[in-house]
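In this section we walk through a basic example: taking a raw amino acid sequence and producing a predicted 3D structure, encoded as C-alpha cells. The instruction is simple. Fold the sequence below.
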Amino acid sequence: MNQRIVSIINYLTADRKISLDQLSQYYHVSKRTLRNDINSINLLLIENGLYPISFDRERVIRQSDFGQLIQLIPGQDLYSYKLSREERSFLAASILVSSSDYITLSMIAEYLYVSRATIIKDLDLIKQILAAADLELISYPNKGLWVQGKESLKRKFILGLIQKEQIFLPKDEKGNARFSLQAGNVVTIRKIVTEQEKLHGSHLTEESYQLITDYIRVMIQRNKQGEYMERLGHGPIGKRYRMAQDILKYISQYCNITSTEDEIFFLGKMLEEVRYLKQKEFTDRNTIKIQLLTRKLIENVSEELDINLSDDYDFYENLSNHLHSMFHNKTSYLPHNNTFRDIVQNNRDVLAAVKKHVRLFLPYIKREIEEIELAYITIHICAAIERKKNKDVAFHVVLACNGGIGTSQLLLARLKKHFNFKVVDIVSSHEAVLITPEQADLIISTVPLKECQTEHIVISPLLNDEDYIRVGSKIDTIRNSRHLPIRKEKKEITVNGIIKTVKPVIHKYLSEAGKPCMEEIKLCLENYLGEKDTGDVFSPYLHHLLTADFVALDVECSDWREAVKRSAEMLLKKGYIEERYIDAMIRNIKENGPYVVISEGFAFPHEGLEMGTLKLGMSLIRLKTPIPFGDDEFDPVEFVCCLSAVDQKSHLKAFFHLVNMLQNKEFKKALREAVDAEAVAGIIERYEYMMEI
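The resulting C-alpha cell sequence is shown next.
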C-alpha cells in the first residue's frame, strides 16, 4: 500500500460525492492510475468483508460501511511508507538530477531517512538509471556527486519519473516535501494553458494536457534554480511555436520567471509531438443571453426576498453555468437528492420566488421547467443567502481534516472566502474530540467525529453549495441556542487586499501616471509580505476592455438598427469581429425582442460565440439623441455597448461589474457629462475600482 492509496482512503472516508475526474485533478494523476488504486482498495475491502467501491458514470460510489476501512489500516501505514530498493534508487536519481549544486551521499541518505551505507549499496543501480537517460553520474573529491548531461535530458528524466509515478517525494513532520521537482501555482498554470488552447484552437487530450502542465512546473522549478535550456540550434519556427510563446509569456508574468528563446523553442517542440482532440470545442450562441437572463433573475429574486444578492460574483457565475443545462437538454439530467429536498422544504419562500421569476426563461427553452431544476436553482440561491448572512458573524472554528495539510489548506481557503470565520486551529479527527465548547464555537470536519462534546458538522473538502447551506443552518442553530459574542475580527492582510484599497486613491490623484507607481507598490508589497498577487489571470476588468480607443461620444443614429451597427464599428475596424456579427446582432433583437436593454437608457447588443467573433472586446457609444429599442421599461436608449465574446467566461467579470455600476445613478450621470473618450475611460476605471473596495 503506497502513500497515495492511503491518502485516497482518507479522502473518501467522509460522506461526499466525488467523480473520478475530480479525484484525478486533485491527485494530479490519470484516471487509469486512479482506477488501479481503487482496485487495490477494493481488494482490501473484500478481504475484510466490506462492500467494494463501484462507479456510476464515473461517479465514485461507496457503501455505508466504507468508513470502517480506516480502522483496519495499521497506524504506521497512515504516516509512513517504506521504499523498495528500486523506488529508493529512482528517488535518489531524481534528487541528483534536480539539484543545481553538488550532492553528497550523506545528504541523499538524510533526504530518504536511510543510512549512508544503504545509499552506497544503491549507487550502481542509480548510475544505471541515469545512464539509461544518457546522463552520467560523476564524483568530485571534497565536493560530492554531480549529474552531467544536457538540461533537456535532465528535464525529460524528471518528467518521465513524474508521468510514470515512479517516485513518492519524502515529507517532513509537517507534511511538506523535503525537496521539489516542480514549482508554480497549479491552478494558474492550468488557466494559462487552457486559455491558450482556446485562443489557438488546439485542444490537448487529457494525457497531453497533463504532460504539458507537468513539464511547465518542472521548467519553472529549474528556472528558479538558475538552470535554463541549452542552446538548441534553432531551425525553422514550428507550427506550435506561437502557442508556446504565448503560454510562456503569461507563465513568466504570473510565475515570476524569465523565459528564453530556447525555452520557447523546446516547449514548441513538445507541443508538436503531443496529441490533440479532433472535435471542435463546444460553443453556444445562447451563452450571453443566458448570462443576461441570469442577471435579471438574480435582481428579481433579490427584490422579492428583500436581500441584495447582486454583488456575489461566485453566485452569479455558478448559477449562469448551471442554467445552461435548461437550454441544452430537453429533459433534466439532475439526480434527486434527499438533502436537497429537505433544504427546499425549509426554504419555501425562496422556492416561491424562483418559480415566479424563472418564467422569464420559458420563451427561450420552449419547455416546462422541472421540479428538480427549480430545486437546484433554489439551492444556489440559498447558498448565496447563507454566504451573505454569515459574513458578519466571526465564529471561532476548529477545522478537523485527515486528508493531509494540502486538503486542510484548500478547505480553509474556501471557507474563508465565504464565511467570516476565525479558524483557531487545524487538527486531526482524534484531536478534535478533545476540543471543548470554551475553545471553539464549532468544529468543521471532513470525517465523522465520535463522542465529540463540541458542536460539529461534517462536510466535503470540495465545499459545495449543499455544504454552504448546512454550515449556515448549523450557525443559525448555534446562534439561536447560545449567546455568542459578536466578534469583529481583524481582516487578513494580503497583497490583493491592500492593492484594492489604495488603487482608487493613487488613481484619483495621479491618474495615468499612477499605473507605474502602482506596479512598484505592488512589487514592494509582494517582497515585504512574501506572497504573489496572482489574481484571476484571464478575467479582464471592464476598464481593460473599454479603453478610450473603444469609446465614441455623441454619435448620431436614426434608429436602433443603426445604433447597434455604429456601436460595433470600432470592433470591426480593429479586427475583433466579422461583418456578419453585426447582421447577427440585429437579427437577434428582431427575433427575441429588446432584452439587450439591461438598464435605463443602456443597451448591450451581442450574439452567439460562433456568429463572427474573433477576439474578446467591448465598444461603447453615447448617442447624441436617445432612441427607442422597444423596451417599455428602459427606453429611450442613450448608451449602446457592443460585446464580442469568445467563450463563456472571459467576459463575465467585466459584464458583472458593468451591470452593478449601472445601478449607480452617479455613474450614469458621469458618463453623460463626460467631454471626451478619455474621460469616459477614466470614469469607468475609477468607478470599477471603487466598487472593488
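Looking at the output, two observations stand out. Residues 495-529 form one domain. Confidence is low (pLDDT under 50) at residues 75-81, 171-176, 279-283. In the next section we compare this with other chains.
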